[in-house]
Amino acid sequence: MTPDVDVLILGAGLSGIGAAAHLSRERPGTAYAILEQRAALGGTWDLFRYPGVRSDSDMYTLGYDFRPWHGASMLATGAEILDYITATARDYGVLEHIRYRHEAYAAHWSSADSMWTVRARRIHQSYLVERRLLGRRARLAEGMEFRRSPAGQPGRPRG
């Protein structure tokens, strides 16, 4: 079997974009895709936009080693972090690899083929589009705010 991609990244938040940018820098020519459940990149920093949202970790630790943080404050606002993630994705050619509104719901490793088979579907549509993706590596880039519960439940994020 020939893989669709060499690397499949699940999630277009801080970690997923960082992994993709790293591939672009360190392994040019690597075929990869990012599956993002939401309609936008940024993960937590796109989802939570309430007044005063900011990092509780310094950006020198939270940021990418290949793209040092040069903001005015070491504790960045949510909007500043989202801009940082978006600029990184743009500058490293990551945007064209993101498949928005795609949910990976099953993964199976084949030792015989040394390959992952990941089942994914388009979400938020009136019909289901299912696709089987084959990849040599899969990287789960879930953030701390990842939830598998229905949107709209008390205390749960929407989106």
UniProtKB/TrEMBL annotation:
Indicate yes or no for the key word Oxidoreductase: yes
Tell me if Membrane is a UniProt keyword of this record.
Answer: no
> Any idea which GO molecular function terms this record carries?
monooxygenase activity
Cofactor names from the entry are: FAD
The record's section on InterPro entries has: FAD-binding_MO, FAD/NAD-bd_sf
The record's keywords, sorted A to Z, are: Monooxygenase, Oxidoreductase
Fetch the Gene3D superfamilies from UniProt: FAD/NAD(P)-binding domain
SUPFAM superfamilies annotated for this entry?
FAD/NAD(P)-binding domain
Q: Spell out the family assignment given in the record's similarity comment.
A: Belongs to the FAD-binding monooxygenase family.
- UniProt protein name: FAD-containing monooxygenase EthA
Per the UniProt record, the source organism is Nostocoides jenkinsii Ben 74
Classification from the root reads: Bacteria, Bacillati, Actinomycetota, Actinomycetes, Micrococcales
